[in-house]
Amino acid sequence: MRDALFASIEAKTDELVELTRNLIQIPTINPPGEDYEDCARLIGERMRARGFDIAYVRGDGTPGDSDRYPRVNVVARREGGAPGSCVHFNGHTDVVEVGKGWTVDPFAGVVKDGKVFGRGACDMKGGIAAAIIAVEALIETRPDFPGALEISGTVDEETGGYGGVAYLARQGYFSKPRVDHVIIPEPLNVDRVCLGHRGVWWAQIETHGRIAHGSMPFLGDSAIRHMAAVLERFEHDLYPHLASKRTDMPVAPEGARQSTMNINSIHGGLGEDFDGWPSAVVADSCRVVVDRRYLIEETYDEVKGEVVDLLERLKRDRKNFRYDLKELWSVPPTMTDKEAAVVRAVASEIETVLGKPADYVISPGTYDQKHVARFGHLHDCIAYGPGILDLAHQPDEYVGIDDLVASAKVMAASAWALLTGEVT
Prior knowledge:
The chain has helices spanning 2-11, 13-24, 36-48, 121-141, 165-170, 223-243, 300-317, 341-354, 369-374, 401-420; strands at 53-58, 72-79, 82-92, 111-112, 115-117, 146-154, 181-184, 192-197, 199-208, 260-268, 285-294, 323-331, 334-335, 359-363, 381-383, 398-400. By secondary structure, the chain is of the alpha/beta class. The protein folds into two domains: 2-197 and 333-420, Aminopeptidase (3-Layer(aba) Sandwich), CATH 3.40.630; 205-331, Alpha-Beta Plaits (2-Layer Sandwich), CATH 3.30.70.
């Protein structure tokens, strides 16, 4: 069975490359959410032609959803010839902005030097294409397979996934008894099983002041100076404390095996949406957005409490210090058990295909597994796919053709093992 399956995938190499190119050529940039429906229909109509039932599901009312930018997802399902488990392959169709520094057209799907280039090649249209080819090879090799196979193309992962997997998970698309195992072909490197991700807590801190003429700042109270005091406490107190926290989670890269916090943005005083000279005023407001990534050994209350305690100390120590704290979103860490069936199946096939044991990692940032776990309550879920993690969101992003083929073999053989219950 395995030899026939692998031979089928190798014979489909050109088709795999072309499908990857076709997906890249649809510029599904998020934000704002361009061309989602076109990409969903490319996947849906292909799978319909191969005997799958197709559902197009719009994430009505989710962040960013509008008639101009509808959040259109696609779910394809094919029942096998006997009862059994369902294996679901999920990939996000959205990509980030292009940015500067490209030497090739980011939406042409250029093929050279054994690689397919383009925005989303690595993250994660190459993974979607590999999963589709894996499933197609499986049903062609064993059309009487037991159980069911599903493929989904979902939106908005790059901005939280609320119009995509989160919306579908709340509708039962990622829960038992419909689905038993989920593989998300994110670019975590072709020899790795990604078990989950660190937690995240985003918040906006706003400091308040009193407006006055800029030539007489002593008559006002600068919110920017108050924010500077917050940043100074971050540097001297919070950042060293976070650096001392280490985890047993196998987070990659190594630098992410500690707690981290990034300042995503800072805005104070006058707005920047004008071309003329600014006016002379003391800023009465300053805002920062912080992105705190935390470990499975930490709790939500601990993470939030560290920032609140710091701000409250400043309130006691600094004259006229006033602040507001607004939580933007949070997700707990997640880590699938290494003994879970989907982990064992994929790890076994990585060793078969690549000739070396699988590496187990945790992602430094979240991905859609968070929604499968907390809304679908399904924990037999991992990320596995082609692509080099460090290339995601970079100029001249690419995916290697050999990695596309190898990952398709791993996914096809893993799906067969899970469908038949032959997981070692």
